[in-house]
Amino acid sequence: MTAVCPATGQAAGLIMPCMDMATINDFLAELSSRLAPGVHAVLIRDNAGFHTGKSVVVPPNITLLALPPYAPELNPVENLWHYLRSHYWSLRVYRDYEALKEAAVVAWRAVCLVPELVRSVCAAPYIHLRT
Questions:
Q1: Which domains can be identified in the chain, with CATH numbers?
Q2: What is the pTM of this model?
């Protein structure tokens, strides 16, 4: 799971073996704790059940903005996933879960720790950004 700021190129991510309500809540809590005082994050999300369930705990400095159904391409972070798949993960076979996890970490660090690259990949002309 990843959140990006297309304006600054900052990214925060959590690599987990599964995506469920507990993972979402862990990610939101960690992201919330890393936001600077006075910063409020708006996260665009799809309508997956684990994003919308009643057990999602949204910290006060985060707002979740739901996308319309069948429109995941409107989420700038989807461009990041496409970039990672096309440049790092496609056409490869991983011997086990640990190798897959290591590939995820290596790719995430190579891309998501480079703000200029994140800004470029996640640019969305329909989002008005203020920094």
A1: 2-121 (3.30.420)
A2: 0.82
